[in-house]
Amino acid sequence: MGLPMSATARRWQRLPRDARDTLFQLGVVGWTLLPHVAHLPAWCSVFAALVLGWRARLAFVAAPLPGRWTRVALLLLAAGLTLWSERTLLGKEAGVTMLVVLLALKTLELRARRDALVVFFLGFFVVLTNFLYSQSLAVAASMLLSVWGLLAALVLAHMPVGRPSLARAGALAARAALLGTPLMVALFLLFPRLPPLWGLPQDAAGRTGLSGTLRLGGVAELANDDSIALRLRFDGPVPPPQAMYLRGPVLERFDGRDWARRAAPRFGIAEPAQPDLRLRGDPVRYEMTIEPSRLAMLPLLEATPDIPGAAPQLPGWAPTLGAALEWRLDRPLTDRLRFAAMAWPAFELGSRRPSPALQADLQLPAGFDPRTRRWAAELRARPELAQADARTLAAALLQHIRTGGYTYTLEPGPYGRDAIDEFWFDRKLGFCEHFAASFVFIMRALGVPARIVTGYQGTDPAPVDGWWIVRQSNAHAWAEYWQPGVGWLRADPTAAVAPDRIERGRSLAPRPGLVAGAIDTMSPALALRLRQGWEALNNRWNQWVLNYSRQDQFDLLRALGVASPSWQDLARALIALLCVAALAGAGWALWDRWHQDPWQRLQRRVQQRLAALGVAVAAHDPPRTRADRVRATLGARGEALAGALDALDRQRYAGSTASAPDRRWWARFRAAARAAARATSGGE
Asked: Is 492 considered catalytic here?
């Protein structure tokens, strides 16, 4: 015996069709707005939720909708709040906010089909705006469900007769979407790739990643971000973890608090256009997919030179290689990029002879960190270090870090004004930037040119789907110092205190979230498999969909037999495809018209036969009405014909479950029509 039905469930079943359809549509609207909660002002999310909840209650209790002035007042309130929170009514954030508000308020005047259509099309616009913030696979799947829901609601709005079920409307919406899928795929493959549709220049400011400045603690905060920064795939041997350095901004200016990139020009000396780079050994061929960031720079494997076949080829971008081996872009990285390059892990960088340009890498701010300066003077006074070269001094400092009780940690706590002094002599706690910055400071105090290099070091322990994953938690800072006769040499103080971080390429693990932590506690292997599976799926989405480029389109044309594809070939292929689709659509319409409801097709044939006998009937007249008009027009001569129509009426409307009329009926009707025609001719 089943459980008793609750009063709410019984009330739901008794709801009129209009209320049921409205509640379904409100649910679809709420689902569509849900991803915006993380991006819009809190008041907007609360406002939309209250309006949708209010409208749902009105539908459930069959209460009248609010009047025009109430809606106008709510609109003015929302516009004022938008102006207060965004400081403008223009731009992306304000525009999306107002679009969400308008969609929510429009549900308060759902009275006619016209109002419903406005809600549908506003909903489709809101679906598109979700991709202004994220084009991830999860968002795409969520919006696919929203599109299905909006199409199902659109189907319901065009079914005014009877009480069609949601399942029937949903199935019809899914069928319509599936029929349009081949054309959508074809347009995706052949439609010209335009400049970034979703990425806007100002979007980069809100993204995480490396920056052009460094303050102690900044990289540690970034290391708590476990999101993916980039992926690597190697064509050949994979470099060992300790060689997996991806070079980003080089920081040379220090004001006592922040490290920043070198200003150009400096000291009246123009910076060389190209680095003084000497490559050794065999190159490493690799492919990189890099996620959008706030930095106008590519963190590439050291050292990736600007030579044919090695430099990244990025159509639409202008990557340039600076003297400090930084690959710079002409604008912030607002798009996901995929490219191939080559790197030489063994290299020499910089002039072997002293130059005036090195003076910038000896500068220290006055009045900061006096104890470190005194310690540098004491080191220089030691007999064994008095005439030591840069390499010997660096080795002595690294040995001091190994044996001096220093600790590598993600949570060193805040540092004060003289942070370098505090690190060396008091706290002895730090993340990679603490070690690198303190090392560079004392090397400069010792008279050795030195600078900080930021970027990424290491990858996940194993590849996923052939790709090695570099996360934001792999963000790293190391040092470079200048050795006469050699040039710039890498020194990574982190390796002295936490060799596992460098030798295995593993970063400190940030604290997991609640759900991830629970899964990891129950089954670490399951948590790892789930994470790797999702990231592999997401990577394929990135590679096959988001990274589908103009070059991929040309490669497709080559595979189809076009020797030297161009934009003209792409346009011709697209036009030909659209013509074929139009012809196929016309053929489908003709086929569908022929194979539509057999009862309607039979009704048209009957109407044509009756018109030939002089009996005027309308297309919507049922067989019973047509029988009455046959008797009124033909009298006794048409009785057999009218009887056949009465039989058809009983077959159609007397509870019959037949999906099509009896074929024998048409033979009887045609014979009766011929007899009536002969009787009419004979009578005349």
From this structure: yes
